[in-house]
Design a protein that fits this description.
It contains eleven helices and 13 strands. With 321 residues, it is α/β, with parallel strands linked by helices. Strands 3-2-1-4-5-6-11 form a seven-stranded parallel β-sheet, sandwiched between helices. The chain has a two-stranded parallel ribbon with strand order 7-10.
Length: 321
């Protein structure tokens, strides 16, 4: 069997939590990888630099500090002769999007438009982009299928992700860019963003500080191990499609109260819980139907929550030494 031809891949947001795991895989197998990341201050930029620092000096790796809204991105696409783009860059988080909706629209939608225009002009013909389970909006039952209606948005973040999907579909139709959008369901694990619940709970319990639980703990999330998600992204890179939207999720929702118990067990410590009212924009549940991912990408999540949380805790304890 002939070896797969390696590509020049540009990864926007490649120094981030999920993006850096994708970069690890692409670099390790020999792809030429250009990371474009603006290293903004949503959380400490030093964390992002550390995420990709292990590749410094490798001949098939380069990192460029740049905002995806900058038209200089087009020159990079042309100069580096990019063959595929993995578009991970975005302003993340539901609650912050209620505070700064203009910023979320500017980065997530206009930034994506700038990238798509650059790809059109430079004839880059493959795109894999990160969407979110947030596009499903208000739901009381699952699992969520890619064919479900996604018109009931309840946060600027979710709306920006939906708009991103529509934009990418339009460019795929007009200009033949082979495009796969991946709806991620609550990634957790090593290099977790420090604003995510799993990281916040591990950190608080580690320092004997209280954790804040919004609501009664009955809300459910389809937690998905971050390395499983990265495997799904790489599978999408290796299987170009005309245009598809695909869920990447654990397909097993966990109640918030059960998540906390799992973390307590992994850490051997009890959590001190402070309760507050549910926040606007939060959804009651997420639950991925992953039949399409299994069929088109031969992908399914391999890591159960207990093992994934143990990995997160081990990574956190190692990093904080």
């Amino acid at each position: 069997m002939a070896a797969m031809k390696r590509k020049t891949v540009l990864v926007t947001g490649g120094a981030g939590s999920i993006g850096s795991h994708v970069v690890d895989r692409l670099v390790a197998r020999g792809d030429r990888v250009i990371v474009v990341d603006d290293f903004n201050d949503y959380y400490d930029p030093k964390i992002k630099w550390a995420n990709v620092g292990g590749h410094e000096g490798k001949v098939n790796f380069r990192v460029i500090k740049l905002d995806i809204r900058d038209i200089k991105l087009w020159k990079i696409l042309a100069k580096e002769k990019v063959e595929a783009v993995v578009h991970m860059a975005a302003r993340a988080g539901i609650r912050p999007s209620l505070v700064e909706p203009e910023l979320y629209w500017s980065v997530n939608v206009m930034g994506t438009l700038n990238l798509l225009e650059g790809m059109r002009k430079c004839r880059v013909n493959q795109l894999v982009f990160a969407s979110s389970s947030s596009v499903y909006g208000i739901r009381e039952s699952g699992p969520f299928k890619e064919t479900d209606n996604t018109d009931r948005q309840i946060s600027p973040y979710g709306a920006s992700k939906k708009a991103k999907e529509v934009l990418c579909a339009t460019y795929a139709h007009l200009y033949g860019i082979k495009t796969t959008g991946l709806r991620f369901f609550t990634a957790y694990g090593p290099r977790n963003r420090p604003d995510m619940a799993c990281y916040l709970f591990v950190e608080a319990i580690s320092h004997d500080k209280p954790i804040t639980v919004f609501g009664d703990g009955s809300s459910g999330r389809d937690y998905t191990y971050i390395e499983d998600i990265a495997d799904g992204v790489v599978a999408a890179v290796d299987n170009p499609m005309v245009y598809e939207i695909i869920n990447l999720g654990g397909s097993k929702p966990t109640r918030l109260s059960d998540l906390i118990e799992t973390i307590e067990k992994a850490m051997g410590k009890r959590a001190v819980i402070e309760r507050e009212a549910e926040k606007p924009g939060d959804v009651q549940m997420t639950y991925a139907d992953t039949n399409k991912a299994q069929r088109l990408l031969r992908w399914r999540a391999k890591t159960d929550l207990e093992r994934g949380i143990r990995q997160l805790v081990a990574w956190y304890e190692q990093e904080k030494r």
